[in-house]
Amino acid sequence: MPVYLVGAGPGDPGLLTVRGAELLESADVVVYDRLSVASLLDLAPEAAERISVGKTPGGLTVPQDEINALLVERGRNGERVVRLKGGDPFVFASGGEECRALAEAGIDYQVVPGITAAIAAPAYAGVPVTLRHSSTSFTVVTGHEDPERADTEGSVDWDAVARVGGTIVVLMGVGRIGAIAERLLAAGRTPETPAVAVRWGTWPRQQTVRATLGTIAEQDLAAPSTIVIGDVAAEKLDWFERRPLFGLSVVVTRPERQAAALAGRLRAAGADPVL
Fold it and tell me: Which of 12, 33, 85, 88 is catalytic?
């Protein structure tokens, strides 16, 4: 029985792939991280074991070696294991390390891609990462650079990123946005370059902060945020946050078997239904 690495997407449960949903519905064990949505865990059978290995910035962390060992152990037991990971397993995530550990242990595995926040968060904020004839490329880069690099320049060549042109999408960069902005400015990007930060992209609690490259570090930003830098960040094709019930939590007091239809209508209108 393979171990399945499934991308949970960026937060909106509707962005889970059909294949991912099928695997969750037949799982014996779900090993999930901090950004996995609770309603996705409900897709698993009631008897399925649910194991949290969430990594919280500044808080308790399950070491990656322990996660790898857990997947190997459960895979050897012949259980149907679903490793549910936020976003896509191979986009600035530990999917590669987990697959390598399984391969070295002789355990079969399969990967189900997920929608990355690098695309979904800007889209839900009304920002296309490319525009025909103007922004014809985009670069996705991590702001969480290699902590083992002793030099002050870090592990990302921000000068090269700036020179590529087009749109820059920064994941996990809130903590270093000041230094990142300085590097991009020094490499030739102008202070007036539009910038936008989308926190909790695709979630009912989504927050969008618009600024410029020269002012983005002065904003009240917090993780998890996707930061978009470039001309496209000036676009305001908003739709998600303009829905009539956006930002509201609505308690649905109907019995669970009767609540699904109403919860779906509330969710479509922007609310966060609490069953």
Answer: 33
Task: Determine the CATH number of domain 118-234.
Answer: 3.30.950.10
Q: How far is CA 52 from CA 60, 180, 213, in A?
A: 12, 32, 37
Whether the CB-CB separation of 26 and 47 falls below 8 Å is answered with no
55 included as an active-site residue: yes
Q: Which of 172, 220, 236, 272 is catalytic?
A: 172
At 88-97, the pLDDT tens digits run 999 999 999 9
Rounded to an integer, what distance in angstroms lies between the CA atom of residue 194 and that of residue 136? 16
User: Which is catalytic among the residues 1, 28, 55, 231?
Assistant: 55
33 is catalytic: yes
Rounded distance between C-alpha atoms, residue 202 and residue 22, angstroms: 22
Chain position carrying tokens 């090269």? 160
pLDDT in tens, 119-168: 999 999 999 999 988 889 999 999 987 655 544 566 899 999 999 989 99
Q: How far apart are CA 25 and CA 159, in angstroms?
A: 46
| Structure-token pair, residue 237 | 């094709």
Please check whether residue 99 is in contact with residue 105, taking contact to mean a CB–CB distance below 8 angstroms: no
Q: What CATH code would you report for 3-115?
A: 3.40.1010.10
Amino acid 208 reads T
Read off the pLDDT of residues 227-236 as tens digits, 9 standing for 90 and up: 999 999 999 9
CA–CA separation, 142 and 117 (whole Å): 12
Sheet strands (E) in 64-144: 81-85, 109-112, 138-142
- Tokens for 134, please give them: 């103007």
Sorted by where each begins, the domain ranges of the chain are 3-115, 118-234, 244-275
Contact, 82 vs 4, CB < 8 A?
yes
